[in-house]
Design a protein that fits this description.
73% helix; 277 residues; mainly alpha
C-alpha cells in the first residue's frame, strides 16, 4: 500500500487541484497529466482529502447562501403547517427552491456516477482521452458565448436536471465540471451570477459523495507518516482554490468565461501530439 506523496508532490498536487477544480479546465484531467508526464502518483486517499479541501472552499465562499438555505429547510415543517401547499413552501421561497433544485440536479449526477464509474476507470490512465475531452470542453466553452439572454425566472426543474446531467459527464477526465455546468446553465437562460452559484452549490453533494466513496479507513493508519504532506497539500488546495473561485466569479460576471476555451484547446492539442512517458 502506498505510503503517500512526498511533501513537494503533495504541494504540487494541491496547487493543481486548487487552480483547476473551479476554473473550467478540468482538475481530473490535470491530475491525470501530472501523473503521466511528471511521474507524480495521485494517491486515491490523498485525492479524497484534496476534494475535502476544495469542498470547504465552497462552504466558506457561499457561507451566507448555505446558511440561509439550511435555515429555510429548518423552517419548512412550520411553513407546511401554515400554508398547506408544496408550491408555497418549496417553490416560492427562494432558498428552499434552491435546495430543491440542487436535489433535482443531483439525481442525474448520481445515476451517471454509479452506472459508468467502473467502466471509465481506464480513462484515468489515458492521456488520449484527456486530450479529446479537453478539446470537447473547449468547444462547449466557446458555444457559451452564444448563450441566449438570461431569464430572471431560471433556473427551473428542467434546467436543474440538464445541469446535473452535464455535471455527471464530468466523470470523464478532461471534461470540466464547472465548464460543463455553468455552460449548460447559461444555455438555459440562467443569469450569470445565478449560473455560477448554482453550479458550485450543486457540486457540494457531488464532491461530498465522491469523497465518501473514495475514503478508505485502512489508509488512515497506512499513510500515518504522510500526514504532514497531506496537510500541506490540502491547505494549498483550499487557499489556492478560494482565490481561483473568486477569480472565476469575476470572470463570468465580465463575460470572460468563454476565453478558457483557448487554453483547453491548446492543452488538448499538446496532449494528443505528445506521447505519454
Amino acid at each position: 500500500m502506498s505510503s503517500g506523496p512526498s511533501l513537494l508532490e503533495a504541494i504540487l498536487l494541491g496547487l493543481i487541484q486548487g487552480l483547476t477544480e473551479w476554473l473550467p479546465v478540468s482538475s481530473s484531467g490535470h491530475l491525470v497529466l501530472a501523473q503521466q508526464y511528471l511521474g507524480v502518483e495521485v494517491d486515491v486517499f490523498f485525492d479524497a482529502l484534496l476534494h475535502l479541501g476544495t469542498l470547504a472552499v465552497i462552504l466558506v465562499f457561499y457561507r451566507d447562501t448555505v446558511r440561509e438555505v439550511l435555515l429555510a429547510l429548518a423552517r419548512a415543517p412550520r411553513a407546511h403547517r401554515e400554508s398547506g401547499g408544496w408550491r408555497e413552501v418549496w417553490w416560492e421561497d427562494p432558498h428552499r427552491r434552491l435546495a430543491a433544485l440542487v436535489v433535482v440536479g443531483t439525481i442525474p449526477t448520481v445515476a451517471i456516477g454509479f452506472t459508468f464509474e467502473d467502466r471509465l476507470v481506464g480513462f484515468f490512465e489515458s492521456t488520449t482521452v484527456v486530450g479529446i475531452a479537453l478539446l470537447a470542453t473547449g468547444a462547449w466553452l466557446f458555444l457559451a458565448r452564444y448563450a441566449p439572454e438570461p431569464d430572471p425566472d431560471s433556473p427551473g426543474g428542467w434546467d436543474a436536471l440538464l445541469v446535473g446531467l452535464f455535471q455527471g459527464l464530468a466523470i470523464v477526465p478532461g471534461v470540466s465540471r464547472s465548464g460543463a455546468t455553468i455552460g449548460m446553465a447559461l444555455q438555459r437562460n440562467v443569469e450569470r451570477e445565478h449560473a455560477v452559484r448554482f453550479s458550485f452549490l450543486l457540486s457540494i453533494p457531488a464532491i461530498a459523495g465522491a469523497t465518501v466513496l473514495q475514503a478508505d479507513p485502512g489508509s488512515l493508519s497506512a499513510a500515518r507518516g504522510a500526514w504532514p504532506a497531506y496537510a500541506a497539500g490540502v491547505t494549498v488546495a483550499a487557499l489556492v482554490g478560494y482565490g481561483a473561485l473568486w477569480l472565476l466569479v469575476r470572470i463570468v460576471e465580465r463575460r470572460g468565461f468563454t476565453h478558457f476555451c483557448w487554453y483547453c484547446w491548446a492543452l488538448g492539442a499538446v496532449v494528443l501530439l505528445s506521447p505519454a512517458v
